[in-house]
Amino acid sequence: MHKNKKKEFFLIRLGKDLRKYAGAYVLVIPVVLFYLIFCYKPMYGVIIAFQDFSPIRGIAGSEWVGLQHFKDFFESYYFTRILKNTLIISLSTLIFSFPMPIIFALLLNEIRNEKFKRLVQTISYMPHFISMVVVCNMIKMFTSNTGFITSLLGIFGVPEASLLTKPEYFVPIYVISGIWQQTGWGAIIYLSALSGIDQQLYEAAKIDGANRWKQTLHVTLPGISQTIIIMLLLRLGNIMDVGYEKVMLLYNEGIFKTADVISTFVYRKGLTDMEFSYSTAVNLFNSVINFIIIVVFNKLSKKFTETGLW
Amino acid sequence: MKHKLLKKILSSVLAATLVFSMAACGNDSENTVTSSSTKEETKAIESASTTESSTVQESTVAEVTYPIEGNVTLTIAMLDNATVNANAKHLFETPLGKAWQEATGVTIEVIQCANNDAMNLLIAGGELPDLIFFPPSKYSGGAEKAIKDGVIEPLNDYIDEFAPDLKEVLESNEIWYKTNVTSSGDIIGAPFIRGDAYLCSGAGLIIRQDWLDELNMEVPQTPDELYDVLVAFKEKKGATLPFTTTNSWMRNIVNYGMISSAYGQVKSDWYQIDGEIHYGRAEAEYKDTLAFLNKLYDEGLLDPNFASNDNNTVYSNMANGISGVTVGATGGYMGTILNAVEKDNPTYDLTGFGPLVAKEGDVAYSGYYSNALTGDTLFMTTQCKNKEAAVKFMNYGYTEEGYMLLNFGIEGESYTMVDGYPTYTELINNNPNGWSMQQALAQYTMSWNAGPFVQDKRYMEQYAARPQQKAAQALWAETDAAKYMVPTLSIAEEDQAEYSKLWADINTFVSEMMIQYITGTADLAKFETEYLDQLEAMGIDRVIELRQEALDAFNAR
After folding, report:
1. Could you tell me if A99 and A194 lie in one domain?
2. Taking CB atoms and an 8 Å limit, are A274 and B139 in contact across chains?
3. In CATH, what is the architecture of B72-169+189-198+373-455?
């Protein structure tokens, strides 16, 4: 009943609101236009996933093939492999690198020397600003048969051969270098959340006899839990997205077995083999799964933690 | 199709013999599904028109005069080339490009594409330039599809009138002609043609001759000998990675059969024996080549980084004594390495060897070999605004004047005639700006790379001028490669979707399995069950069948 009433009066309320906050609405116009023009308008292009698209003939002139490309993809020899690789890389990133910025922020928070804290923070941001191409070349050099990481591992009995030619090392290299790249940068949002915690709570905890560890557990973590959950939800929405840039720069045919993911597959199909329709179909499938995941997890999160994205 | 043929007979009085036989050929393949009586009919029409048109052709031979009048401007899309770009913005800013524009009277505007993907994107964008210099085979589905998609405008209606020299060149060699038309008879464009078999080989295995001399060893001819040499290099010469290469050259070793002859296989790629097509990577003998490479890898004789190496790493490995054996081209590889070490290490010496054979003195089935038509083609797009001028421009490289310009550059500047032999000047051989010979050639000629003309053997004779290079060039040409080579095939349009779907997966699979078997990530003991059976499950038999049909159609053209 309440909902119906809301709907009934939506337009009237909007009208009232428009008059009241006209300035704010004017300000929001560019943003709305941005999304309409750059995010919603291009979406009609997904039609080509159901066509045998040829750029010369255009969307209007291309032949309609329905779900053929989806069928081809599901039947493809590589379907399970790239799906599996994507999930493995994505989940290991989630498990190993998602908590890192949180831990890092908590540790930084405990540092009392402001100067030292800033120094550490600044240094830890830096990798984020190094171009991906440079980072990947560094990784390649360090993991070649004479690279220092290879030599270091050699001490522990790992055979000294180029690590990037061994399928079993790709995921660890990807994840660990990712942690190095993003931990400092990722910690910023948690640090700002930390600074928003009421200091009185700590004082109260101290009076109750809580030590540092207990304070962290019962004051700090609950204080930033909303931020963590929102970040986690955003991450889950991208669970099927492993960016192609880094993977492409690191992999070679010898390790496709563990390194080839959906986005690189789409890249090769779409831009190298020019199978636009097929690659669009693959990516559309990917986006649909992502969409489902984020909706489901948002529902769950709202139910259990009362925090959600919308 | 029949309608099209009739239309052609009616409309083109000047049409040449070949245009007709081609169109009829397209008919043949179509007719296999229709009744045989119509086939007889078309055959009759064909033979009638053939005789008719050839008599017409005799009397009117078109000639194109240069420069083309009317201040024409054409846009041409081509790939960036690092060697050209080292000293000029693009090809048409080089002395060669300027002379070419002047001679043809055409002003060229260049659209540079960084790589194949960029070119494909440009084509995909739908707004096409007048001309494109790019291998149509790199377009998904090949030339056939590019014509069907409305990218390439076939030359059939223009060649007689505006490109008589191109036509004459193509007609002078059956294979050249066949390679440059699609199965439905469309003339694709102006192809790069290697004018001599000598130019088709030109890459192979390379070894440190001075080390061999010091160790008192012979140039290896069999896999066992190569193995012994590599061990000696490692133990006695301190070569930590005795055999270095890159992923793409490793593929060439396998694809062109630089090792496989020793194990009784022509090569581990597509090859033909008397018109019957084979796919080496789906044959049991392929295992032996892999086993040999795997042995080298396991014992630390093969560079373990080969899958991620680039050419420069290989050059420096070779030049610094880290490695003693590699694989590459006479010019780019041998030349580059020798240039690099010449000053500091005068005793340094390289020799080309291989392809490996089972026992000394055998002739290898195959070695590095590229088809006379490499696939690089200058083609006209359907959106070309001045087709007449464009085709005339395409024709220029095949005229006598254009032939000399594109092969040797400007007479008196980059070459002089010495006893009728076009000899590169000091400007090329010993450039005053300190450019390498390749860089100098890139400013004055197209013969060092590819272009719309026929490449002259005399370019290579001077480019690979060192005795080692000449010897290697001669040695590598001594195989039966040409006999087994499969020409560039185009898959019939109706089978294309099926073919590319099957082939895309298989191609990825064999490429990665090659590396995995060499590096031992995959177990060779399970070669039959995990690899050959898998290939079968992926439909390799059907792919071979389709290629066979394409080859039959090619031979019947």
Report:
1. yes
2. yes
3. 3-Layer(aba) Sandwich (3.40)
Domain boundary among A48, A64, A80: A64
* Chain B CB contacts of A269 below 8 Å: 504
**Nearest-by-Cβ selection for A165 from B123, B126, B307:** B307
State chain B's mean pLDDT as an integer: 85
Domain co-membership, A48 together with A89: no
The residue of chain A nearest to residue B299, with distances taken between CA atoms, is A161
| Set of chain A residues whose Cβ sits within 8 Å of the Cβ of B511 | 253
* Overall number of domains in chain A: 2
- Name every chain B residue with its beta carbon within 8 A of the beta carbon of A57: 149-150
Report if residue A310 sits inside a domain: no
- Candidates A165, A168, A265, A278, partner chain B, best to mutate (most B CBs within 10 A): A165
In terms of domains, do A92 and A56 share one?
no
pLDDT of residue A5: 56
What's the mean pLDDT in B274-292? 94
Same domain, A244 and A147: yes
Chain A residue numbers touching B126 (CB-CB < 8 A): 55-56, 58
A78 and A33 part of one domain: no
ipTM for this prediction = 0.73
pTM of the model: 0.76
Query: What are the chain A neighbours of B120 within 8 Å (beta carbons)?
Result: 271-272, 274
**DSSP string over chain A:** -HHHHHHHTHHHHHHHHHHHTHHHHHHHHHHHHHIIIIIIGGGGGGGGGGEE--TTTHHHHSEE-TTHHHHHHHHSTTHHHHHHHHHHHHHHIIIIISHHHHHHHHHHHH---HHHHHHHHHHHHHHHHS-HHHHHHHHHHHTSTTSHHHHHHHHTT---S-GGGSHHHHHHHHHHHHHHHHHHHHHHHHHHHHHTS-HHHHHHHHHTT--HHHHIIIIIHHHHHHHHHHHHHHHHTTTT---HHHHHHH--GGGHHHH--HHHHHHIIIIIS--HHHHHHHHHHHHHHHHHHHHHHHHHHHHHHS----
Distance from CA of A273 to the nearest CA of B (A): 5
Q: Are residues A106 and A90 in the same domain?
A: yes
pLDDT at position B86 is: 87
pLDDT tens for B497-515 read: 888 888 888 988 998 899 9
Mean pLDDT of B269-287: 93
Q: Are residues A28 and A143 in the same domain?
A: no
Q: Which domain holds residue A159?
A: 69-305
* B113, B308, B509, B534: best to mutate for the A interface, most A CBs within 10 A: B308
CATH topology of domain B203-370+465-484: D-Maltodextrin-Binding Protein; domain 2 (3.40.190)
Residue A123 in domain? yes
Same domain assignment for residues A89 and A176 = yes
The stretch B392-417 carries a mean pLDDT of: 94
